[in-house]
Amino acid sequence: MLRELSAARYAVDPRLSRFTVRVTSGGPLAKLGHNPAISISDFSGEIECVREKLDESYFSVGIHAKSLVVVEDMSESDRAEIQATMLRDVLEIEKFPEIAFTSSSIVAEQVLEGLFRIGVTGNLTLHGVVRRLQFTSQVAFVGDSLRASGDFTILQTDYNIKLYSVAVGALKLKDELRFTFDIVAKRAV
């Protein structure tokens, strides 16, 4: 088991990391809508790995749902309305305040010295639903830091999230959400 080896532990540094979600509009009036970018600002995570045996690594990430912030360039009133609707009606943060991912399997392929392509499988808990998620990440080791970047998509309906729409569906958000991450983690002492 990994914990019996001398595994390095890394803590995610959200100040140096970027984690965003892209939402797109659909329906006949889609050109009138926004395709908001949403920043995830309050999250934490830990990574445990032995560089020579990355396939035995483990990581987890926890997100405070209330920390999702609309950052798209739009009027302040539109941003405030989208923000409030997202947190209250779509994510229902009063009932589901946390979003979490925990890895269950990692497959690593070394690309260059200190650079790896990682296939990750794990469980994403969102809106009270747990579903298996797979994605690919690039991981680089630089000194006492680890940097992971990549993207993945999910369908809101897979997590029992009601698709937001107005004007009887003439303007609505598409089901697919695209997450992009560039995570920096520092070796824990």
The poorly predicted ranges are 27-32, 167-171
Number of strands: 12
Rg calculated over all Cα atoms: 18 Å
Question: How many distinct folded domains?
Answer: 1
Number of helices: 1
| Beta-strand share of residues | over 45%
**Outline, from the CA principal axes?**
elongated
CATH superfamily annotation: Lipid/polyisoprenoid-binding, YceI-like
Characterize the biggest β-sheet.
Answer: 8 strands, antiparallel, barrel
Mean pLDDT: 86
- Which architecture would the CATH scheme give at its second level? Beta Barrel
In short:
With 189 residues, the protein is mainly beta. Helices cover 8% and strands 56% of the residues. The protein has one helix at 76-90; strands spanning 8-12, 18-26, 37-40, 43-49, 58-64, 68-70, 98-112, 115-126, 129-142, 145-155, 165-166, 171-187.
Describe the model.
The chain has 189 residues and is mainly β. The protein has one domain: Beta Barrel (Lipocalin). The chain contains one helix and twelve strands. The protein has an eight-stranded antiparallel barrel. A hairpin with a 2-residue loop joins strand 8 and strand 9 (129-142).
Defining traits:
single chain; mainly beta; Lipocalin; eight-stranded antiparallel beta barrel
Strand-helix topology:
Blueprint lengths: L7 E5 L5 E9 L10 E4 L2 E7 L8 E7 L3 E3 L5 H15 L7 E15 L2 E12 L2 E14 L2 E11 L9 E2 L4 E17 L2
